[in-house]
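Deliverable D4.2, example record:
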Amino acid sequence: MMTLMTDPASFSVAESAARPPAPASDYDAVRRTVEFITENWRDQPGLDVIAGHVGMEPTRLQKLFRRWCGLSPKAFVQAITLDTARDLLRDSASVLDATYEVGLSGPGRLHDLFVTHEAMSPGEYAARGAGLDIAWSFHDSPFGEALVMATPRGLAGIAFADGPAERERVLADMTSRWPQADFREDAAATQTYARRVFHPEHWRPDDPLRIVFIGSDFEVRVWETLLRIPFGRATTYSDIADRLGKPRAARAVGSAVGRNPMSFVVPCHRVLGKSGSLCGYHWGLTRKRAILGWEAGLVGGGRA
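Output generated by the structure prediction step:
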């Protein structure tokens, strides 16, 4: 892994002096910090430079970002240096083989979140959600506002929005997947899921998070495979196709990955191109890089 150096001098005085307005909220501050770091990580900006572009005092930003993301802006810069993406792919095929053989991954597994899952029956899926009650609401997360959707049987969807202006579009995208379902806004019903998903202290092996897959048989098989990618690792579309016994179905696998309704929990962000490139992500490559960087920071224990 490359040695990382912080060099604020790589930014011009004019850039540092162009201080933007103070953020409107804690969420806005974190969003702007993540966005700035993911766009400028190659320059290895220091805390003062990052805080200057966000419009906050450095010590306050440090405390806020650590509270939201679990690591400091500096550690996030280091973690998000995604020329390490190729390292994530090292031995990915054998990792998937091993997790299938034992039925679960090792103690470093994150996106179990300690998860237990079930799938809607083919008939229920064909009904396009008819008779299904889905509660939804937006909640804060380290990666933007998260739309959390839940049924009486468990968590059914997670999507992301960059602030209130995007809520309508994101909600429409998700509700269109199950057009015959009954949707109701209910923050009380979804808050527990948001807390359990985005706060590691609530990830407990003795109390697994229940999730419900609503998709075609092939999509569900792909999503189940995604759940087997261990924390701190990645795989490719072709590796997943090989594991499913359909080596020529990489494109179909890509479509199913893109249709994953539970971003973050079902880690579609861990699927990369063969070369280690990030490829597409339904909720944006900036957010994909941010999630991978956050995970890498937790793996490395980056808390500086």
